[in-house]
Amino acid sequence: MKLVVIGADAAGMSAASQARKRRTPDKLEIVAFERGNFTSYSACGIPYWISGVVSDRDALVARTPAEFEKAGVRVRMRHEVVAIDLDRREVVARDLEGGGEIREGFDELMYAAGAVPVTPDWARVDGGGVFGVQTLDDGSAIKVWLESDPKPQRAVVIGGGYIGVEMAEAMIKHGLDVTLLEKSSQPMSTVDLDMGERVRAAIDGLGITVRTGAHVQGIETSQGRVRAVVTADGTVPADIVVLGLGVRPNTALAVESGIPVGVTGGLRTDLRMRVVGPEGHVEGLWAAGDCVQTTHRISGQPMHAPLGTHANKQGRVAGINIGGGYATFPGVIGTAVTKVCDLEVARTGLSSKEATRAGFEYVTATVESTSRAGYYPGAETMTVKMIAERRTGRLLGAQIVGREEAAKRIDALAIAVWNEMTVEEMTALDLSYAPPFAPVWDPVLIAARKATDALLAADQG
Amino acid sequence: MKLVVIGADAAGMSAASQARKRRTPDKLEIVAFERGNFTSYSACGIPYWISGVVSDRDALVARTPAEFEKAGVRVRMRHEVVAIDLDRREVVARDLEGGGEIREGFDELMYAAGAVPVTPDWARVDGGGVFGVQTLDDGSAIKVWLESDPKPQRAVVIGGGYIGVEMAEAMIKHGLDVTLLEKSSQPMSTVDLDMGERVRAAIDGLGITVRTGAHVQGIETSQGRVRAVVTADGTVPADIVVLGLGVRPNTALAVESGIPVGVTGGLRTDLRMRVVGPEGHVEGLWAAGDCVQTTHRISGQPMHAPLGTHANKQGRVAGINIGGGYATFPGVIGTAVTKVCDLEVARTGLSSKEATRAGFEYVTATVESTSRAGYYPGAETMTVKMIAERRTGRLLGAQIVGREEAAKRIDALAIAVWNEMTVEEMTALDLSYAPPFAPVWDPVLIAARKATDALLAADQG
């Protein structure tokens, strides 16, 4: 038996490792193809490496090709799979360094080609200094550019999502003048407007110039270097441009081999991460990570959720099943977290906008409290917002903005959302209390109380 | 209508406040009796006030008598209720300052007399310098004693639970030589032995002398001052002795008026916090806080859980019901948290010992991971232990020991326990991930994976 893996990053190599754990090399040969220079690295860590917070690029690599080889997983680096033949059960891979192509037969095929940055036509320019932030190679290129001559002074970051905001902060740490262009009315629009305002204030506080409602029309270059970003409202000079416009599933190869994608552009899979085609799952074809479509457990809608944590879990599930075990991936609930300077931002479940789009009627409750007992030194303001469905009282989503020790508390709310708890039941939760860790009424409990009151008021109204 | 409240601390005054919120003073008169000098204070904060971490005693008082009066709640301070007549619907209270007794009729009676420290006969000594840590008055007395002449040099803390360990650290902060006497094999025995070892190391690291298996037989005094604590293994000199032997429900008054207590010594209540007597609930009699017995939701067993956070919730529930609303308190799951120096310790659900006692068969899984991505600055080691029931795979309990930002993560596990999640399902949880906040596999997820593997191994064995 042979397993071929396309893409040797989180999803692919989690699958390879789990399959190897269950099947010795004499029972299952594993060959992974990777077009890039690295295996299993933390893409989420790139902004922190660029900013200098993390000093060592190699620290971002969880496991090297040599380590995989030692564990009995063959890794062909700088080999790009260019064709999949499902009938003949083989892939064709191009050697990007040595040239030439090789064919590799398979019994099981793990498709983990990841995602590609969204790059509008206007972003496809010849000049140097325009970067995506997708791979370690992108990170290296940015670091080289920042030290190039003449040294860049002005950065424009396009897109105010997680990566955009993290990269804007990284550019500030390099001493650049930074402008962040966001097309909607607020950066970090994955949280509600009232919560986003607090994030916006932190971004402003870093000295980043934020331009919302920005419609980028083009990028100006001269003499091989970027010069400015052109928007509907004027031109912003730039010596470096960072694109934070999100990513889309990298499914071209699968589509060419006859596998249709889902409405989000990602491959459809079943719960075991088997790829689903027009006639049910395709025997021996697996997919995981940024190239697949998953389900939001609260809205019930398909979504594309390109995050390393999902890629690892999905890859693990695929690998367990490939190895003869049984595991399932039940979908996501949209949990995410980041920080801006020392302001922590976290969300789970549905935002107000998402809840509306999904068809829910809901109430919201926002409370300001503190991270520790008010009298305990170091207590920091913390804002918790809850979104609860009318009538049922079910917690649909929650958001937290605060300083030290605030964001990771979203996990408690994520588990409440996952279990479809009502906010009323949540008022009774036995959460941890001691003065150094929480007020006697934990902010989560206060929010649950307020949401319960809001439900009562809504149903009386 | 008149509501009389016995005990003007967390439980009683939460009830008073909620009842007042729903019933105006013309509809409901509220009178609270308090034998002490303070209302609604944070008893959990006392060790931190004694240590000097919290500098202001008044900061521990959430709401003063004057504030309650302003809100339409009459508070009779330094009045101790000495008799309850359920037939005549009145209480008798003694004025501890002015002398004399008053009678107060009631329609509804809220019993919130709290707890009293466990004080063995050997601890009842005439000498000064032996203290419980139950009330703000106790705290004041300790602070005065620490500054008395001759200045105490050697402290002995008896009992290695939360309060004992917190007080031992407070004594170290005052520069004393501190010995902690614990009768079991390890302090902080509310966590499993393997987790407790880590706590023990932190206690040792503070310079506290820990003597386990210690059987205290007496306290020696001379010239009105404590001199030593006598144990079966020898005598430990002491200029101050702090008792951390736990508390028992203060139910004497209720018992005298004919209300039987439960097996834990606490008053039994129904879900709405109505006191339950031999023939069902007693009309118009409510109880909450450290004087009641509650139910552990996982073991199904009655337990005494004297914690401010429960007292507040139970009091709130009683008050809502007294005020004509509807609310219930569904029991606890044994969540608790503290810190020793910078080592954080947290638990929820059942410990191994408790699970065994409750009749469960279970597996355990302990993992060491980090609080942030391993490459992110400030990542600290974190240990997570899970206890899962055999066959069902249900999470019965969990414990966390770690540095910065570790302990409060117990809330996520508490909500998983509360919802009776299986560790298998937990491997798929959508927990927050970003390098400053967690490794890509959150420690909780790694523990869930390991517990799942342990279950599989147990059922194959």
TrEMBL record, chains A, B:
Lineage: Bacteria, Bacillati, Actinomycetota, Actinomycetes, Micromonosporales
Tagged with keyword DNA repair: no
Protein name per its UniProtKB record: Flavoprotein oxidoreductase
Cofactor(s) essential for the protein: FAD
Pfam family, one: Pyr_redox_dim
Keyword flag Flavoprotein: yes
Residue ranges occupied by any FAD/NAD(P)-binding domain in the UniProt entry: 1-306
UniProt family annotation: Belongs to the class-III pyridine nucleotide-disulfide oxidoreductase family.
Cited InterPro entries: FAD-bd_OxRdtase, FAD/NAD-bd_sf, FAD/NAD-binding_dom, FAD/NAD-linked_Rdtase_dimer_sf, Pyr_nucl-diS_OxRdtase_dimer
GO molecular function, one term: oxidoreductase activity
Keywords: FAD, Flavoprotein, Oxidoreductase, Redox-active center
Pyridine nucleotide-disulphide oxidoreductase dimerisation domain span: 337-439
UniProt-listed SUPFAM superfamilies: FAD/NAD(P)-binding domain (SSF51905), FAD/NAD-linked reductases, dimerisation (C-terminal) domain (SSF55424)
